[in-house]
Specification:
heterodimer, A: mainly alpha, MetI-like fold, 11 helices, B: alpha/beta, Rossmann fold, four-stranded antiparallel β-sheet, 8 helices
Chain lengths: 264, 300
Amino acid sequence: MRDSIFQKLDWLLLPLVGFGAAVVLWQVVSQTVSRDLPSPQKTWAESRDYVLKPFEKRGEMDQGILRFTWYSLLLVAKGYLIALAVGTPLGFLLGLSKTFAKAFDPLVQILRPVSPLAWLPLGLVLFLGAGKQAAELGALFTIAICAMWPTVLNTAVGVRAVPQDYLNVAKVLKLSRRKTISKVLIPATLPYMFTGFRLSLGIAWLVIVAAEMLTGRPGVGGFLWQEYNALNYAHIILCILTIGVVGFVLDRLMSLVERRFKTA
Amino acid sequence: MAYLELQRVAKTFNGSPVLHDINLSVGRGEFVAIVGFSGAGKTTLLSLIAGLLPADSGTLTLNGLAISAPGPERGVVFQNYSLLPWLSAFENILLAVDQVNPDWTAAQKREQVQKYVAMVNLTAARDKKPAELSGGMRQRVSLARALAMDPQILLLDEPLSALDALTRATLQDELARLWQEDQKTVVLITNDPDEAIYLADRIIPLTPGPGATLGPSFPVAIPRPRDRRELNHDPRFKAVRCGVIEFLLSSRRERHTALTKKPVLPDIEPEDLARPRRAFGGRARAKRRSEVKEETVEVR
């Protein structure tokens, strides 16, 4: 009987064991190896205000943690939408046209592994003329260009993987090129596209922290970097945990959406 | 002048001839079955008629017009159903109806789809996705889609070969019934002589490839509607069946004399399972016969 209760709750209990172990390790490390690392209790004591009043605004760089998260999410959403708007058509072109793929695939493969930290300065230079807006535009550029590659590549693979049977149907029905794309190619590619979208969102969220750290914009990443410079190490941990939880939630949400399109 | 006419048609894939000197003429309203071994090039032949593949040489005409591309006047039922999995049965058929009759009202289109869904007895399953349907039901949707386009000619590419025997018989009956109602021109590709005799007016065997060609016609003079049980005892059935099978087998026998092949043996040595396993990495890698340098054979 007791066994079965444990078995029923293991989805909750086992992760708690994992978290517990991490906290113990953290405690031990902060007591022994690295005395500068704030202990769990100290982290909580210093973060209380930010967690318990998550939407309070006390100053430009001193706001509740969810308020910071909200700023970051807004920026990510904008950059992510740009990435999708550019990446999806680019992926379709790469998948549809062999000539286009030959011309641009090497370029894509070379730009893809470039780190966000390398793109950001270029983004800032690009929008130097924009004045006050430069930081935001540079950050958006970085998010978009880093996040779009999974969408581009997955869409291209998906288009190439459309079964010949479906294309034969389109041919026999004499669907026009536009109709073939809208009625056959896009629905057949959707599952691949959504896998790309999910991976892209993960990357966009990764990039936001780097972008905010370098531009000093208010947001989770900007706050993290500011508190590091202000020697408030406890808040670094708070930011890391927030970034992790938000990233996890975003990924879960996207995989729910993705599953809906996994019919084919 | 025949309705569908193929003259000296040939098709080559990567240098090897698949079809060679194909001559076929099908009259309007005729039901012709082409029977051949699998791999003989039956699907290639149908793809040529459908216009999905271009012929290397020869002429193909339908109603006096050259066939150069696929078109909705030729309804095709593919062996693997080829339904779009994100559309329901109804929507799959609607897509075809919509394409063929762009100027109809929405109500007219729905009525047309409904009519053909009912014709293949799928009204109860009309809103299901292909993945939720059995193989036989999917093939009915595919058939309904082809019929709903109201094509001048129906091209059936082994439509029933992926189905179990019972479903197959049911769908054969249904095909016979539909043909009686519509009297469309039909070209059926099959590997089952019995199916061909049950359904067709005329049977044409396709010799085995490479370089397959059509044999002589075997007319099936059995009056319709045909009864499956009586058919087996009908002397005409036996005669046609005998003729077609005899032709196919003898044409294959001729091929056999020309077939030379290098025998290929598996490149592997037997392993002694009695030897103990090594402590790390499990068993040693299998030995290739080609890697064996020398062997000692004990002679007693």
